[in-house]
């Protein structure tokens, strides 16, 4: 059983955004005390006596959310192999998806819906309308910034993509610029 009781209070006490830094010495023990007090306010003692253990998870970092995005995209890529297609997201696309699918109180729960709404649904339409076809890798990138940012989809022949770095990946760009 999981609950978000106390998550709003914990997230208010943390730095804004994805930061893992605790403000005001907000330690794990503080979080456990806060969550236990919220549980006592919300549930009757008869129920709480049946609970063996309470585990409190700290707020996810941006890196952890992006790792979850990578796992979800890998699953989507596996499903696309049945259609002789593949998918890859640039670093900018992963970050935008992480931002759209993250909620400080709910954590990564909305991420699945964001992936479906922002990537899978438009991609399905592009497949149905023949804008992308079998034998292609679909490269998802971002156009625009802030609230105007939107995902772009480009079908690239699989043979042209093999070994080609993603254009907006700063780590790849750093590595390639040091090799010149």
SSE layout and pairing:
Layout: H1 7-13, H2 28-42, H3 45-48, H4 62-81, E1 86-89, H5 91-100, H6 111-128, E2 136-143, E3 150-157, H7 158-161, H8 170-179
Parallel strand pairs: 1-2
Antiparallel strand pairs: 2-3
Helix pairs in contact: 4-5, 4-6
Note the main attributes of this structure.
single chain; 180 residues; mainly alpha; three-stranded mixed β-sheet; 3 strands; 11% strand; elongated
Can you give a write-up of this model?
It is a single chain. The chain is mainly alpha-helical. It has two domains: 7-48, no CATH class; 62-179, Helicase, Ruva Protein, domain 3, CATH 1.10.8.60. Helices cover 49% and strands 11% of the residues. The chain contains eight helices and three strands; from the N terminus they run H-H-H-H-E-H-H-E-E-H-H. It has a three-stranded mixed β-sheet with strand order 1-2-3. Strand 2 and strand 3 (150-157) form a beta hairpin. Helix 4 crosses helix 5 (91-100) and helix 4 runs parallel beside helix 6. The longest helix is centred in the middle third of the chain and has 20 residues, at 62-81. The protein starts with 6 loop residues before the first helix and ends with a helix.
Task: Give the C-alpha Rg.
Answer: 21 Å
Shape call: elongated
Detail the poorly predicted runs. Answer: 15-25, 167-180
Strand percent estimate: 5-15%
Q: Alpha-carbon distance between the termini? A: 54 Å
Contiguous helical run count: 8
Please describe the biggest sheet, giving its number of strands, its sense, and whether it closes into a barrel. Answer: 3 strands, mixed
Question: CATH topology of the largest domain, which one?
Answer: Helicase, Ruva Protein, domain 3
Mean of residue pLDDT values: 80
The CATH class of the largest domain is Mainly Alpha
Strand order of the largest sheet: 1-2-3
How would you classify the helix and strand content by structural class?
mainly alpha
Supply the CATH architecture of the largest domain: Orthogonal Bundle
Order of helices and strands: HHHHEHHEEHH
The figure for the number of domains is 2
